[in-house]
Write a structure and sequence with these properties.
By secondary structure, the chain is α/β, with parallel strands linked by helices. The chain has 15 helices and eleven strands. The chain has helices at about 15-20, 25-35, 40-55, 95-100, 125-140, 150-160, 165-175, 190-195, 200-215, 230-245, 275-285, 295-300, 300-305, 325-330, 340-350, and strands at about 55-60, 65, 110-115, 145, 220-225, 250-255, 290-295, 315-320, 350-355, 365, 370. Bound molecules: ligand V47. Ligand V47 binds near residues 148, 182 and 263.
Length: about 375
């Protein structure tokens, strides 16, 4: 029996009809969703799609973030993490430190290292290849999800070789897939203000396209809650959807709320729970060809990330262990959650937790070991 929802915003009813029949939503539909305050109606529709795709499952993983350096040649106004090399607070790990840090700080074996960092003017492609090789040697069963499209473009430019060759060399050294960061928002007007030193939106999409064509999977993100408009958000989502029609290489979309503290944009108010849930729901409804929507607990707080599991999200990210990018920007969440904490959050939301590897294969775990079930 299908329950008839009681929509406060009757203008959303034609969208409900499309959701029910699986018809693709248009840019204008997306704008109607962003304009509406009927969060329960929007969440209800996103939940229909989420349950159609993933039933009652919520995915999580046991992962560790590694940020080899915060030295960055760019000075993006959105960022509190990047530092100039001369800054006494800046750090760059040695290869040995990266390999050592990778093994620290969690009680259960991680299945994924999430590796991103600043655009360091001296670390070479060869250094990063050595880093990956050393990680694979020491942790052969751990998936290396490494380098944003922005880092790839910078490494290629410094090495004076193409994107494809840069990716091939990193892949040969052990890179298994790529995270979704650095996309920010594709609008050039906004990028000029929040991240004018970064590659433009087209180049981000172009690197993603080349990576996918080379057989690499990646995630994608959108940074919201700064100076962008609803039009900018919709434009970003529709561009990701178009590329995905072409390549099918995106695995997960992660909406990222801007954290203003310690950035030159710290006068901007933080996003609210309402906005965070709406972005999860709207992205689930618009990105009909991207399999997973992640509510990243570090950014949203565990509480909102949990509720998001009923507003379109099917993933809550992982144990993380050591998070720097959001914590430098004033995040008050803890740096790490234990596997048991994630299980409790998911179960309390009435969802069934499934531990996954990076590519969403289920993981079975005993006290000391894990097996990826293919
Ligand atoms: O690339 C930087 C953003 C990203 C700030 O792929 C900021 O599974 C908010 O991409 N406030 C890093 N955001 C995080 C990221 C990510 C996280 C979890 C999972 C995955 C995945 C990817 O955070 C950066 C940038 O887009 N960022 N500074 C800030 N002040």
């Amino acid at each position: 029996m299908q329950l008839e929802p009681n929509f406060e915003d009757q203008r959303l009813l034609p969208i409900l009809e499309k959701v029910r029949t699986g018809e693709r939503l248009t840019f204008e539909d997306g704008m109607a969703l962003y304009r509406s305050r009927d969060i329960l109606a929007i969440g209800h529709m996103a939940n229909i799609v989420r349950e159609r795709l993933h039933g009652n499952t919520t995915f999580f993983n046991v992962n560790r973030h590694i940020n080899p350096t915060d030295v960055c040649v760019a000075s993006c106004r959105l960022c509190a993490f990047g530092k100039k090399a001369r800054d006494p607070k800046a750090y760059t790990m040695s290869l040995e430190q990266v390999w050592e840090v990778a093994g620290k700080g969690y009680s259960e074996a991680a299945t994924e290292f999430h590796i991103v960092g600043g655009l360091h003017p001296e670390l070479t492609l060869d250094w990063f290849c050595q880093m990956l090789r050393g990680l694979k040697q020491r942790y052969p069963r751990v998936h290396l999800k490494a380098f944003t499209m922005v880092e790839i473009s910078y490494l290629a430019q410094r090495q004076k070789i193409g994107i494809r060759e840069t990716l091939e060399r990193l892949r040969e050294a052990g890179m298994d897939s790529m995270p979704g960061g650095g996309a920010e928002i594709f609008s050039e007007r906004v990028r000029r203000i929040i991240c004018d030193h970064k590659i433009d939106g087209n180049e981000w999409l172009n690197v993603a396209r080349i990576a996918h064509q080379a057989g690499l999977k990646s995630n994608c993100t959108m940074l919201y809650g700064h100076i962008e408009t609803a039009d900018d958000r919709m434009d970003h989502l529709v561009k990701l959807r178009s590329l995905q029609d072409e390549t099918h290489g995106f695995v997960t979309f992660i909406p990222l709320a801007f954290h203003p503290d310690n950035t030159p944009l710290q006068h901007i108010a933080k996003t609210t729970g309402f906005d965070d849930l709406k972005n999860i729901a709207v992205s689930r409804l618009m990105l009909d060809n991207i399999p997973h929507i992640k509510s990243y607990w570090v950014m949203m707080t565990p509480r909102i990330a949990q509720v998001a599991q009923r507003f379109g999200a099917d993933d809550i990210d992982g144990t993380v262990v050591e998070e720097k990018i959001y914590h430098d920007a004033g995040a008050t969440t803890s740096q790490s959650l234990r596997r048991g904490d994630l299980l409790r959050l998911i179960q309390a939301a009435g969802r069934e937790p499934v531990e996954r590897d990076t590519l969403y294969r289920p993981v079975e775990r005993t006290e000391t070991a894990f097996t990826v079930l293919v």
